[in-house]
Amino acid sequence: MIPYTVNIKLAARTLTGTLNLQNKTAVDWGWQGLIAQGCHSSILIIDPKTAQTIQVLERHKANVVKVKWSRENYYHNLSSPYCLRLASGDASGKIIVWDVVSGTAHCEIQEHSKPIGDLEWLWNQDASRDLLLAVHPPNYIVLWNGDTGTKLWKKSYAENILSFSFDPFDPSNMALLTSEGIVFITDFSYSKPPGSAGKKVYIASPHASPAHTKPAPATAPAPTGAKKALNKVKVLITNEKPTAEAVTLNDCLQLSYLPSKRNHMLLLYPREILILDLELSQTVGVVAIERSGVPFIQVIPCAQRDALYCLHENGCITLRVCRSTVATEEAADPEQSVQELVYDLRSQCDAIRVTKTVRPYRMVICPVNENKAALMVSDGRAMLWELRAHTGKAANPSSGLSPLYSPVSFCGAPLGPNQKKIQDLSLNSMIGQTLIAGETLPTSSHQQEVQLKFLLTGLLSGLPLPPFAIRMCPPLTTKNINHYQPLLAVGTSNGSVLVYNLTSGLLHKELSVHSCEVRGIEWVSLTSFLSFATSAPNNMGLVRNELQHVDLPTGRCFAFRGERGNDEPPIEMIKVSHLKQYLVVVFRDKPLELWDIRTGTLLREMAKNFPTVTALEWSPSHNLKSLKKKQMAAREAMARQTVSDAEQSSVESSVISLLQDAESKSETSQAISAREHFVFTDTDGQVYHITVEGNTVKDGARIPPDGSMGSIACIAWKGDTLVLGDVDGNLNFWDLKARLSRGIPTHRGWVKKIRFAPGKGNQKLLVMYTDGAEVWDTKEVQMVSSMRIGRNVNYRILDIDWCTSDKVVLASDDGCIRVLEMAMKSASYRMDEQDLTDPVWCPYLLLPRAALTLKAFLLLQPWSGTFTMDVTQVDYSEKDEIKGLIQEQLNSLSNDMKSVLQDPELSLLQRCLLVSRLFGDESDLHFWTVASHYIQSFAQARQLTVSAAEGQAQSEGVQPSPQSHLDICHDVLCETSYFQKFQLDRVHLQEVKRSSYEHTKKCADQLLLLGQTDRAVQLLLETSADNPSYYCDSLKACLVTTITSSGPSQSTIKLVATNMIANGKLAEGVQLLCLIDKAADACRYLQTYGEWNRAAWLAKVRLNPAESSDVLKRWAEHLCSPQVNHKSKAILVLLSLGCFYKVGEMLHSMRHFDRAALFIEACLKYGVMEANDSSNKLIEAAFLDYARLLRTLGLREGAALWASRAGSAGEQLMEELFQGEGGIPEAILGEEVVELGLESKE
C-alpha cells in the first residue's frame, strides 16, 4: 500500500459530463501532445498518454464550437519559448486565445454574434506566428492577430462559408467549402485580403450522376468493383451551376487537402470519399462503402504516409492505406493495373453502442506521430486508440491485399546491428512507403511484413446526465488526518452513485446502488454512506422507497430498512446525527422514523398524530465527553487495583496511555450511547426539540413560530448559531447563547438548502436558491459572495455542499460539478498547482528556460562519458525546485524511450530527430528529417566516389537501399529521380481518368513538359474534327514529332516562345522552350514572372543536376528576401542541394545556435563538411555561441565542452566559466582531445 499523504488544499476544478451538440466540432490534438475538447462553455485539456484531464478553461459564456492549438513550426528559444497556446470560438461569436498553463486569456476577440465557423493558425510564414484566421458566419473570413486581438483584414463572399482548408504545400492556396460548392482562392496572403472572389466550383452530388439513375439491364453481368466505382464518378466538378434536379443540397461533409502529396484534395460524402487531382479538377480515386456498410462522419488524411483515418457513424475508426501502383505479376489485365488510387482497409477498431444520447462526435489524430487517434463521444467519453504494428503474415492471405512492410530504418537512419528501437514510434516507422510504378519491389531479406491493429490505451469518462445529488464525506480532523481521503459522492438519475476523489479529480468508485433516481446521500463514516431513492409514484401517489447502506472499501450494500419500503409515501429527507449514532427518516405524508445506525434497528416510529415535518436538523451538542470521563475513571480505578504500589508510579502513565488507545479504537464499537438532540419545524413554523439517548426518546421544549417567517424550508445548526430559511427567501439567525434572533430578507425566493462550513469556529454558511447560491458569514450576519443565473453564470445550480472549510462544490444543470473558492467565481486553475495521479510528459508545462534545458540535456548525452536520465548528475546550477520539475518530466518518459535515449548506438542525427518528436517541435522535426536524410545520402555518395577512385570493389553494404528516398510529402525536396517517377506515375493516372477535351489538353501539356513526346502526340491527335482547336492541336502534333536540333529551327522556336511569354502566354512559351531542350531558360522565365513553385517543379523533372541546382538556389534566395521572409523553407531547399556550409551560415546568422552547432557537428562527423581554414571561422563561431547559450541555461559542463572546441575565443569563455575554481577540470579537456582525435581520423 502506498503511504497516503493528505493534501488538505484541494485545487479548484471542474468535473465535466456529457457534451452539447454544439461542442461536436470543438476538439483538436495539438503538436504539443495534448487534446483540447469543448464541453458546454468550458474547455477540457486532456493528456492522451495518461488519459487525465489536466486543465479546464472557463471563461466562455456560450457553448464552445471550435478549438485550435497554435502550431509549433518556429524555432524555439527563450524569446519564443515552448508554450501552450489555444484559440477557442463559441456560439456567440467570441474567440478567446488562452495561455493554457496559467489558465488565463491572452486576448478576447468579438466580431459578430453568430457561432464561429472555423479557426486556423497560419503557419506558412516566418514573420509572425500569432495570425489566426476565422470564419464569422454567414460569409466573412477575418484575419486576426491572436496575440493582441487586432483585426488585420476582413473579406466577404457571395455564399455561406461552412469551413476552409489550406493547401499544405502552397500557403497562397486555400479552399472554402460553401453551402453551394467550393471556392478556390489562389492569392491568399497575410498582408492583404484576397483580391478576387476566387474560382467557384459546383459539386454535383455523386448520387445524382446519371450512372446511378440508369436501370441496370437484367442480363448484363455485374461490373467488377473497380469498374463500378469508375462509372460512379465520371465528372463531379463543373464550373456551371448544376440544374436544380442534379444537386438539391451540397451534402459534402468535409473538404481537406491531402498533406501527403501535392495538389490532391479529398471530399467526404456520407457513403464515399472522393480523391481529386486539382490540376485536372478530376476524381482520381474513390473509397466507397457497400450498401450494408456504415456511413462516414469524418476523415483525416495523414502526412507521413498516403493514408486516411475514417470515422464511421457507429464510432468505428478505420485506417485505409493507399495501394502501391507497382504492377504485380498476377495482374493479367494491364488495363486494371493503374485505374485509380485505391485505399485498402488495413485496420479498424471496435464500434461503440450507439443510442439516442450516445453517438460518436469527432476523432482527432496525433499530428506528430499519426499513430494515435482519440474518439470523442457525445456522453463525454474520450476513447484513446493507438495503432500497433505486429510482425507476421496476414491471417487470411486470400484477401488479396499486398503486404505492408516495416521500414528498415529508425529515426531516419539505417538500424545498427544491435540498436534499440521503438517500432511504434510513428506511422512512418511502422509501415514503409506506398510504392509507385517504376520502383523496384524491395528485397525481402531485411524487411518484415507487418499487420496493423488498434489498441484501446485510455478511456476518460464524464459524469452522466444531470440531475445530481451530491454530498461530501465528513471533514478532515486531527484524528483522521492519517487516512483521510476527500471523497465526493454523486447520486445520479439512473440510480448509481459515483465517488470522486477530489485530490486528483478522478473517479474512485462507481457503484450501482439503486434502480431509480438517487434523491439524497448522507455519510455515516469516512468510508460508508446511506443513500435513498424513490421510484415514480403510482396512481395512489405511493412509491417504492429504497434506502441503502453502502460500504466503500468492499462495495457491499444492503437495504437499511430491510423489507420496508414498498407502497408508502416518498421519503423527503434523511438526517444523520453528529456522532453518526442515529438516523431520522422523514416522509411526505407519514410520521418520521428514528433508527439506530450502529445496530440497524428501528428505535421509534412516531405516532399518527405527530406533526408534519418541514425541516429538521440534529444539534451539534452531545454528552459523549462526560460519559467518557466517567468510564475512564472507572477503568483507571480497576487498573490501579491490579498493579501493586511499588510499580505504580512507573507503570501508571503507560497503562493509562494503553487504555486511551484501546478507548479511541473501541469508540464506535463500545455501547456507549451518548445523548443527542434534534430540532424540527412543523407547517405552522413551531420549533420542536427532541432528545434521543440509547432507545429512549424525550420531547423537550417548544418554541412558538416567528411571525416574520413564512413556512420554514430548512435549518442549519453549528455551535451556538441556528439558522432557519423559509420559502419566501428570509433567513433567521438565532444566537442561542445570547438568546437573540435576527431575520434578514434576501429577496431571492425559496431557500432550498443551507449548510455550515466544516472546521472549528468556522461560521460560514452556504445557501442555495432556485436561481443560484450565496455564502454568508453568520458571525457578522452578512453576505460574503453570491452567484446568480443570468448575471454571472449561465447554468442552474442543482445541489451544493462544502468540500473543505474554504471551498464549495456545486452541481449544475450543464452536467458539470465545480469545486470553487468561497468567492464562487468559476475560474481555470494553474496547471502547476495540480495534483496529478500519473506524471504527464509535456515539456510545455515547464518554465521556458527549464524546457530548453531539458531539451539540451537530452540532446547532449552522454554527459561526461555516461548516459544518464538523472539531471542531478550533471553540473547544472539551478533552483532545486526547477530541477525537481525537470526530473519529474524525465521520469514520466516510458521505459522504452529512456532505453533508446540512453543507447550508445543512437547517432547524433537520430537523437535530434527523436527529441524533436518528443517535444512535438514541428520546425525541428522538418529540419532534422531533411538534414539527416541528405547528410547521410551525400556522405554515402562521397564514400562511393572515394572507394571507386581507389579502385576498390564496391561492397554490398554501401549501396543506397531503394527505400532511402524522402517521403513524397516533402514534395520538391525529394530526390530528383524519385520525384520524376512520381510525376510520371501521376500523369499516367490523370490520363486514364480524363473524361473531357479540357482534361486531355492538360494531360498533353504535362507530358510535353515531362519530355514524354510520343505519348503527348497520341493525345493531341485524339482531338475530334468538330473541336475549334482541332487544327491547332494537329499542327502542334506535327511540330512535336518534327523538331530537329538544327540551328535555324531552334532559334525560330526560341524567338516565338519569348514573344509568346512577353505577350502573356507564359505556359505556351514554356512548353515550346521545353520542346527544344531549353528548359533552363523556361525556368528562368517562370521565375521572372513569379511562378516560383512551377519553376522548381520543372527544374526537378527536366534539368540536369547542375542546372536544376542553379534554379533551386535562385528560389532559395527569393525565399530569403525580406518581402517573402520564408527562410525556414529556403534552408530545406539548400539542404536538398547539399549546400551544407551555406545552411550552417544561415542557421548561425538567424541565431538558431543549438541547431547550427549540432548540424555542423553532424556534418563534420559524416564528413560532408571539412574543418579547414575557410570553414573554421564559422565552426568556431557556431560552437562558441552554443556554449554561451548553454551557459545561460545553467548547463556549465555542456558549455565547457563546446567552448573547448571553439578556438581562442572559446578558451576565454572557459576561463570565465571556471573562474575562481582553480582552473578547468581535467576530465573535460581529456575527453575533448579524444573526441577531436576521432573526428580527424574520419
UniProtKB/TrEMBL annotation:
Gene Ontology annotations of biological process type: cilium assembly; neural crest cell migration
Statement: the UniProt record of this protein carries the keyword DNA-binding: no
UniProt-listed Pfam families: Beta-prop_WDR11_1st, Beta-prop_WDR11_2nd, TPR_WDR11
Domain WDR11 TPR residue range list: 995-1167
Example of a GO cellular component annotation carried by this entry: cytoplasmic vesicle
Species name: Haplochromis burtoni (Burton's mouthbrooder)
Main location, first listed in the record: cytoplasm
Annotated signal sequence range: none
Protein name as annotated: WD repeat-containing protein 11
Key words of the record: Cell projection, Cytoplasm, Cytoplasmic vesicle, Cytoskeleton, Golgi apparatus, Nucleus, Phosphoprotein, Repeat, WD repeat
Lineage: Eukaryota, Metazoa, Chordata, Craniata, Vertebrata
Entries under PANTHER family matching the protein: WD REPEAT-CONTAINING PROTEIN 11
Keyword tRNA-binding: no
Domain WDR11 second beta-propeller residues, every copy: 485-825
